Amino acid sequence: MLLTVLGCSGSVPGPGAPASGYLLEAEGFLLGIELGNGTFSELQSRRDPFELDALLFSHLHADHCSDFSALSVYRRYHPRPTIDPRANKLPVHAPAEAPTRFSAQYGTDEADRAVTNLSDVFDFQALRVGEFQIGPFEVVAAAAAHPCESFSFRISHGGRSFAYTGDTDVFDGLADLVRGVDVLMAEASWTHGGAVIPNLHMSGRDAGEVATEAGVGRLLLTHIPPWTDSSAVLAEARAAFRGDVVLVRQGASYEV
């Protein structure tokens, strides 16, 4: 599996740094994971957006999904699409309120929102806790600790395993979900202690401790806000986990 980072800034985009967005590819199948502020521009610089085979959203905060509206315009109005987007609706695996949320984001006023229905070019599929398939990927979803319907994921293919925490605090079952994965991509939005809000995000130390408890192979850190010292987050994670720890970079790709 190949993971490409479209953006990794936490909570908001930073200067020249898009928010959360990733591509995961195997067997020619292109799965988009999140589509936050600025990521659609990055997607276009790398791939034809019509090459997306499916989208997966951990939750519906803007920094993870705001560019869905841009993708909607692209799929509905592009004059020369490389596929017919109405005959080839894009599967969107997301929390249950995604169709309403994205239609409201797309609509310009109350009258427009009343008639906007993006199901002409998208096939919305409500996420649930448990196992399901997206193309060649076997996915396990668990409920995350965040102030809205949110999920963490374990994704497997061809004997390899990758986990993505989404936005979450440490929760009972997180270590079990990610146990033994080859690569764990964990959010780490702040350093440990201080003005930490429960059930919102993890620290660098939290991410490292989960990686140690779960016995993962490699730890990728993401979702670090522009106001957080990324070097301090990295140091915390490395102190808590003896394996390889990497701060993901916008535009970088990683074998997972």
In short:
This protein has 256 residues and is α/β, with parallel strands linked by helices. The chain is 25% helix and 29% strand.
Secondary structure: elements and pairs:
Blueprint: E1 2-7, E2 21-26, E3 29-35, H1 39-46, E4 54-56, H2 62-65, H3 68-77, E5 90-94, H4 98-106, H5 110-115, E6 122-126, E7 130-134, E8 137-143, E9 151-157, E10 160-164, H6 174-178, E11 183-187, H7 204-214, E12 218-222, H8 230-240, E13 244-247, E14 253-255
Parallel strand pairs: 3-4, 4-5, 5-6, 10-11, 11-12, 12-13
Antiparallel strand pairs: 1-2, 1-14, 2-3, 7-8, 8-9, 9-10
Description:
The chain has 256 residues and is an alpha/beta fold. It is built from eight helices and 14 strands. The chain has helices at 39-46, 62-65, 68-77, 98-106, 110-115, 174-178, 204-214, 230-240, and strands spanning 2-7, 21-26, 29-35, 54-56, 90-94, 122-126, 130-134, 137-143, 151-157, 160-164, 183-187, 218-222, 244-247, 253-255. The strands form two sheets. It has a seven-stranded mixed sheet. Strand 3, helix 1 and strand 4 (54-56) form a beta-alpha-beta unit. Helix 7 runs parallel beside helix 8.
Strand numbers in spatial order across the main sheet:
6-5-4-3-2-1-14
Work out the number of β strands.
14
Q: Provide the residue-averaged pLDDT.
A: 97
- The helix-strand sequence is EEEHEHHEHHEEEEEHEHEHEE
Distance between the termini: 5 Å
**Oligomerization:** single chain
Output the radius of gyration.
Answer: 18 Å
Shape: globular
What helical percentage do the residues reach? 25-40%
Give start-end ranges of low-pLDDT stretches. Answer: none
Give the count of helical stretches: 8
